């Protein structure tokens, strides 16, 4: 039997839905274009700086051949490293939590059915039993993302711009139109370093011609204005980049993300702003890796898997201390091994470590901060 023709009310409802979805698509496309504006702006500045430095300064203004050759070679080296690290920061996709952190369909249904409270926490605690989760919400509950429906690994946060949970999220950077996190933090640092070097190099080599501009030592050509603006732009960017780069060097030395610098991570025993710090040298290796020859190249060498991190809090955490050192418990998932506990620096090679994490005394868990209060069991983090 043929279906009945649509009634006027249902067809108008249908067209209303269609136009709303079209409006949504247009809005998303406009947003997408808008997000690329800062990147296009940087690319335009970069193209102009190339023309101003290479053509106007080196080829048309510099008279000394030796100076010309040295400046051109050094400039292209900085330019290439800057572009390479910038490209990698923009186009390296942020990593999301692995499937082990996703709730099962049954657990999701249970969470949706039940009002928030003790039952929710019981479900999450059971799901997190085999996972290397050591940080908690402010109320002491398991960190859970309602939006992605997963248990958040340590140092993972939900990015509202990407609408996804990002491993070891640092911040969402509009200048690279990407989330800076576990997968591209090294690239981001190198991008800051090489862009700073690029600007400092331009400012230093342009300085004498900039002085000549003010003392009328330059002939009246178009190059004059390029040389002047090139110096101003390079000096201005150098100042802002050096403060940003200095801040991120400090973060790396303390093994903190920008988000953690603003809000210290909360462990089972409480807040600890240096909870992930392993000492300067090992903190550096967490981001740059063990092999120093790759430190200055934008290739991925960071340690770990982004889901679990070594900490120095083993003795301070009662629950962790109750696990005998070196105890191995095999994980149900054979493809993904988690460390037996937050590792001390001597055990920090997470990817090569085959120890598995284990939950221990449940009675200790109940005594932890806020866990007995069902009203404080969940927290939305952004
Ligand atoms: Zn999320
Ligand atoms: Zn993001």
TrEMBL record:
<dbReference type="InterPro" id="IPR001594">
    <property type="entry name" value="Palmitoyltrfase_DHHC"/>
</dbReference>
<feature type="transmembrane region" description="Helical">
    <location>
        <begin position="187"/>
        <end position="205"/>
    </location>
</feature>
<protein>
    <recommendedName>
        <fullName>Palmitoyltransferase</fullName>
        <ecNumber>2.3.1.225</ecNumber>
    </recommendedName>
</protein>
<feature type="domain" description="Palmitoyltransferase DHHC">
    <location>
        <begin position="142"/>
        <end position="262"/>
    </location>
</feature>
<dbReference type="InterPro" id="IPR039859">
    <property type="entry name" value="PFA4/ZDH16/20/ERF2-like"/>
</dbReference>
<feature type="transmembrane region" description="Helical">
    <location>
        <begin position="225"/>
        <end position="247"/>
    </location>
</feature>
<feature type="region of interest" description="Disordered">
    <location>
        <begin position="1"/>
        <end position="20"/>
    </location>
</feature>
<feature type="compositionally biased region" description="Low complexity">
    <location>
        <begin position="9"/>
        <end position="19"/>
    </location>
</feature>
<keyword id="KW-1133">Transmembrane helix</keyword>
<comment type="similarity">
    <text>Belongs to the DHHC palmitoyltransferase family.</text>
</comment>
<dbReference type="GO" id="GO:0016020">
    <property type="term" value="C:membrane"/>
</dbReference>
<keyword id="KW-0808">Transferase</keyword>
<feature type="transmembrane region" description="Helical">
    <location>
        <begin position="32"/>
        <end position="53"/>
    </location>
</feature>
<feature type="compositionally biased region" description="Basic and acidic residues">
    <location>
        <begin position="333"/>
        <end position="345"/>
    </location>
</feature>
<dbReference type="Pfam" id="PF01529">
    <property type="entry name" value="DHHC"/>
</dbReference>
<keyword id="KW-0472">Membrane</keyword>
<feature type="region of interest" description="Disordered">
    <location>
        <begin position="325"/>
        <end position="345"/>
    </location>
</feature>
<keyword id="KW-0012">Acyltransferase</keyword>
<keyword id="KW-0812">Transmembrane</keyword>
<dbReference type="GO" id="GO:0019706">
    <property type="term" value="F:protein-cysteine S-palmitoyltransferase activity"/>
</dbReference>
<feature type="transmembrane region" description="Helical">
    <location>
        <begin position="65"/>
        <end position="87"/>
    </location>
</feature>
<feature type="region of interest" description="Disordered">
    <location>
        <begin position="362"/>
        <end position="382"/>
    </location>
</feature>
């Amino acid at each position: 039997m043929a279906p009945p023709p649509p009634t006027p009310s249902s067809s108008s409802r249908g067209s209303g839905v269609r136009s709303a979805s079209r409006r949504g698509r247009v809005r998303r496309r406009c947003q997408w274009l808008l997000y690329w504006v800062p990147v296009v702006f940087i690319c335009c500045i970069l193209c102009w700086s190339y023309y101003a430095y290479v053509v106007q300064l080196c080829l048309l203004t510099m008279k000394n051949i030796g100076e010309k050759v040295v400046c051109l070679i050094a400039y292209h080296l900085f330019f290439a490293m800057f572009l390479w690290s910038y490209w990698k920061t923009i186009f390296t996709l942020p990593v999301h939590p692995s499937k082990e952190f996703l709730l099962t369909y049954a657990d999701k249904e249970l969470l949706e059915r039940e009002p928030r409270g003790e039952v929710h926490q019981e479900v999450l605690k059971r799901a997190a039993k085999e996972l290397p989760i050591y940080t908690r919400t402010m109320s002491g509950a398991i960190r859970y993302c309602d939006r992605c429906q997963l248990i958040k690994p340590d140092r993972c946060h939900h990015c509202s711009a990407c609408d996804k949970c990002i491993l070891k999220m640092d911040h969402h950077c509009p200048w690279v139109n990407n989330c800076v996190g576990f997968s591209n933090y090294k690239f981001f640092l190198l991008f800051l370093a090489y862009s700073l070097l690029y600007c400092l190099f331009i400012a230093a080599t342009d300085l004498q011609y900039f002085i000549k501009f003010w003392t009328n030592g330059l002939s009246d050509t178009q190059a004059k204005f390029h040389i002047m603006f090139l110096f101003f732009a390079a000096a201005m960017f150098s100042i802002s980049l050096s403060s940003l780069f200095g801040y991120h060097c400090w973060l790396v030395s303390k093994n903190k993300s920008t988000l953690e610098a603003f809000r210290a991570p909360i462990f089972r025993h409480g807040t600890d702003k240096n909870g992930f710090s392993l000492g300067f040298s090992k903190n550096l290796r967490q981001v740059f890796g063990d092999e120093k020859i790759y430190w200055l190249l934008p290739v991925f060498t960071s340690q770990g898997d982004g889901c679990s991190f070594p900490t120095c809090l083993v003795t301070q955490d009662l629950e962790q201390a109750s696990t005998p050192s070196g105890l191995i418990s095999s994980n149900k998932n054979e493809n993904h091994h988690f460390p037996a506990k937050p590792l001390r620096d001597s055990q920090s090679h997470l990817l090569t470590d085959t120890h598995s994490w284990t939950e221990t005394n449940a009675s200790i868990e109940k005594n932890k901060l806020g866990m007995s209060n069902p009203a404080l069991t969940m927290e939305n983090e952004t």
